[in-house]
Amino acid sequence: MRSVTLLLLCALGAAPARAEDPATVKPALTVGLLEVVGLHPEVGHFGLYVATSVDLLVPLDQDWTLIPSLGFEFAPEFGNWGGTFFLSLDRFLTKLGDVVVTLQPQLGVIHDAMPDGEGGFSHTLYLCAGGGLGLVTNRGAWLPHILVNYDLRSGAWSLSPLLLFSVTF
């Protein structure tokens, strides 16, 4: 049984806002890839997903930004697809030259639809928690993250390393 969780990603997070006006709310677009690896009861490859999300960067103060994210994910190799919703907190850590480094803890819910072999889909929900870093440049943010996913239907656990790229507009 595939505990195909997936992103997140995805949608997982977005580029932190470091604008002249720290109170500016900004939309962002995030794209990326993630691998889903089953942990228990199965161990193995459950899918390579592509993901995209639309995010809203809501500055809370000079160091913290709240990022709600609504996205879509798809695993071409298995035909799985679904939607994602994440809440991330973006915490400014430091600036290294022209790169701002942030920490991004996050929680999310993922809906995944898997082909059932009879022309329909089997649906499940995953609870996700994890986080990573934001490496923010003047062109966008690279977001390496790791998620731990729990399948509400089967009780299976999976792990999702992912790499996202986000731009604000």
Which features does this protein show?
169 residues, mainly beta, eight-stranded antiparallel β-barrel, 8 strands, 0% helix, elongated, disordered N terminus
Overview of the structural elements:
The structure is a single chain. The chain is mainly beta. It contains no helices and eight strands. The protein has strands at residues 26-40, 44-59, 64-75, 80-96, 99-115, 121-137, 140-151, 157-168. Strand 5 and strand 6 (121-137) form a beta hairpin. Residues 1-20 have low confidence and may be disordered.
Gist of the model:
This protein has 169 residues and is mainly beta. The chain has strands at 26-40, 44-59, 64-75, 80-96, 99-115, 121-137, 140-151, 157-168.
Report the C-alpha radius of gyration, rounded: 16 Å
Figure out the total of helices. Answer: 0
What is the number of beta strands?
8
- Give the overall pLDDT as a whole number: 88
Strand order within the widest sheet? 1-2-3-4-5-6-7-8
Order of helices and strands: EEEEEEEE
Task: Give a topology summary.
Elements: E1 26-40, E2 44-59, E3 64-75, E4 80-96, E5 99-115, E6 121-137, E7 140-151, E8 157-168
Antiparallel strand pairs: 1-2, 1-8, 2-3, 3-4, 4-5, 5-6, 6-7, 7-8
